Each structure stands twice: as structure tokens, then as C-alpha cells.
Amino acid sequence: QVQLVESGGGLVQAGDSLTLSCAASGLALSVYTMGWFRQAPGKDREFVSAEDWNDGKTYYADSVKGRFTISRDSAKNTVYLQMDSLVPTDTAVYYCAASKIITATRDSLYHYWGQGTQVTVSA
Questions:
Q1: How far is Cα 75 from Cα 64, in angstroms, rounded to an integer?
Q2: Residue pair 21/72 in contact by the 8 Å Cβ criterion
Q3: How many angstroms separate the CA atoms of 36 and 48, rounded?
Q4: What is the DSSP code (8-state) at residue 26?
């Protein structure tokens, strides 16, 4: 049974940093494209970042480029999202997801999802 479990969310102030973790079981992250998505209240889920499994190429939404960094530790079967210079519009539930497809920046391309972790950024 595949499980993705996010952790690391919380309440922070604007300008602070947070690191989200996504621990996987039942699959090997080394052969999955891993992505992060977020959903703010009243809004659709949106792409945040992804990392291809085959060559480590990374992708970022324009809104987070230069502030967020995705990485993975295959030995720990865990993917991370380092979030710096947080702003109130980053407030959302953050989800990690796994896909067998490279260059996957749409949520419809992901097969497995975590339950999400709340990130709240106060002004």
C-alpha cells in the first residue's frame, strides 16, 4: 500500500522559512517524479514544484521561483520543499504527490497523493 505523509507545516510570519517533508512508503521515490501542490481556501489546487526522477530536473511555479527549493533523499525515501521568504499568499494546504511521468506539472498526471499539511503565513 502506497502512502505519502507530509509534515513540517505550521504557522509562521512573513519572511520566515519552513521545510516540508514527504515520507513515502510502498514505493521507491527514486523512480517517481515528485511534486508539491497547494490549495488555498476557496481556490483550486495549484502546482508548486516538481523534480523528475530520471535526471533530477526541477520545475517551479512562477510565484515561488527563487524562494522554494525541492529536493529528495532517496536513501530516506523522502522529498522536501524548502520554503524561504514566505508571504501571506503562500498560505495553503500543501500536498506532495508521485507520478511515473516526467515533466509532470499538472495534478492530473499524479497517481499518488498525501493528505496535506497546513501552512499559514501571517503578515
A1: 27
A2: no
A3: 5
A4: S
3-state secondary structure (DSSP) of residue 20:
strand
The three-state (H, E, C) secondary structure of 42-104, written as one string: CCCCEEEEEECCCCCCEEECCCCCCCEEEEEECCCCEEEEEECCCCHHHCEEEEEEEECCCCC
d(CA 69, CA 30): 18
Tell me how far apart the alpha carbons of residues 26 and 22 are, in angstroms, rounded to a whole number.
Answer: 13
- For 49, 54, 62, 74, 79, the CA distances from 6, given in Å and listed in that order, are 15, 23, 23, 16, 9
Q: What is the pLDDT along the chain (123 residues), one digit of tens a residue?
A: 999 999 999 999 999 999 999 999 999 988 999 999 999 999 999 999 999 999 999 999 999 999 999 999 999 999 999 999 999 999 999 999 999 999 899 999 999 999 999 999 999
Nearest CA to 25 out of 91, 112, 90 is that of: 112
